[in-house]
Write a structure and sequence with these properties.
alpha+beta; 209 residues; homodimer; Arc Repressor Mutant, subunit A; three-stranded antiparallel β-sheet; Nucleoside Triphosphate Pyrophosphohydrolase; 4 helices; DNA-binding
DNA sequence: ATAGGTTTTAGACTATCAGTCGTAAACCTC
DNA sequence: GAGGTTTACGACTGATAGTCTAAAACCTAT
């Protein structure tokens, strides 16, 4: 979440092929490391993103025609960076709104959309919001995050009720006033857990009591 | 579904390491093929399973210690074979109940359980049942399949109501009597589609009308 | 200080859907 | 035809999501 929109971190290619197109961060797997270790290493080295709140594997692509020979196999990961973190970025790296992508290198546009879809799904049946939201937040702020990520209106009443019943959210007891223009101060909340927890995967045909 | 239980196809290793342990079917990726083409080729060649109703990627494992050097990377797939298909199997290959696994080779036990979990989740928010059920079936038969796959009781009333409302099921108009012991003949149903369709991924916080 | 505007919060009401149960329907065997 | 078995149907209840209204708590301007 940057500037109240869902954004993805991209870097601009300085070499052929696809010079000038924008690319997802990543790199090669080194001997002796796992895929997750590898993507964390590349993120830290290339774009200084060391604090990824959530990282999960998306899919392994294997089309022989998807690029150069050594790129046939690529395992994609979805990583989420909370809204209040602002990692230092090199010159060629920027955040881009997911629904206004620039010219993307190779199949990275498709991969980005796949990541967005995974995020949408996870938000609905897990506490994945913790990985986008700051430590503490008002319900209105959380609602803005869900609206941006889901792409449709979200009722603040329902959001609060659902997340509270799930036990995903808890009030901090504090309130926060907003500068000029007034309004009742909003209660602050935090996510009870900062690890991914599936809350209701089997909404239908759940086991009887 | 075999003998009214959820079973997985395994073959017995005839070589070290893990001689005598049971292993998931699979093999190496050849140059120029995709992962899905590869797993279909290996299934057809090794265990004569040519009719997989549904095949989806599970996860790519990458632990450097998960086996021999050339096995560090393995992409796992979940394949579902309908209950009425009975592929010819070679000597060393058998179906095994998923909740009574034999001694498994390497990490194949964990992979099997991961596949089972994925199946459980998919059954609840998609029409994945079509890949386990025969072409036509009674509601009782379908209920047996769901019970075996989900591992908990399922109400036939709710199953029918939910799948009909989703539009996943349709009555064939036929009925089928069961041999001796009587009982009202059961109406036959079929799945309206034989391709995977996500039916209700965003059960919560769905867009308002 | 008070009035008016703004934002958040809480509760009531309604609609939808899942879980349970009882009863009728349709078949079998004796 | 009686009794047993399985399936089908509908009513009832409970839980949850969507909507709406009013009150609470703050700001600014007069």
């Amino acid at each position: 979440m940057r500037e109240n929109r869902l954004q993805v971190l991209l870097w601009e290619r300085a070499k052929q092929p696809d010079l000038g197109a924008w690319s997802l961060p990543g790199g090669y797997l080194e001997p002796g490391e796992t895929l997750e270790e590898s993507i964390r290493r590349h993120l830290a080295a290339k774009v200084d993103v060391r604090e990824v709140a959530h990282l999960e594997q998306l899919e392994t692509l294997s089309d022989p025609d998807r690029g150069a020979r050594e790129w046939q196999l690529a395992t994609c990961y979805l990583g989420l960076v909370p809204r209040d973190l602002d990692p230092a970025l090199p010159e060629d790296t920027h955040w881009h709104p997911v629904d206004e992508l620039p010219r993307m290198a190779f199949d990275h546009g498709d991969i980005t959309l796949a990541g967005r879809e995974r995020l949408r799904a996870k938000l609905s049946y897990s506490n994945a919001g913790f990985a986008l939201a700051p430590q503490e937040f008002t319900l209105s702020e959380l609602r803005e995050i869900y609206v941006a990520a889901l792409g449709h209106p979200v009722s603040a009443t329902n959001l609060k009720r659902v997340l509270l019943r799930r036990g995903a959210l808890e009030p901090t007891g504090e309130v926060r006033s907003h500068g000029p223009s007034g309004g009742r101060p909003a209660a602050l909340f935090r996510f009870r857990s900062r690890g991914l927890e599936i809350t209701d995967p089997f909404a239908v045909l759940r086991p009887p009591r």
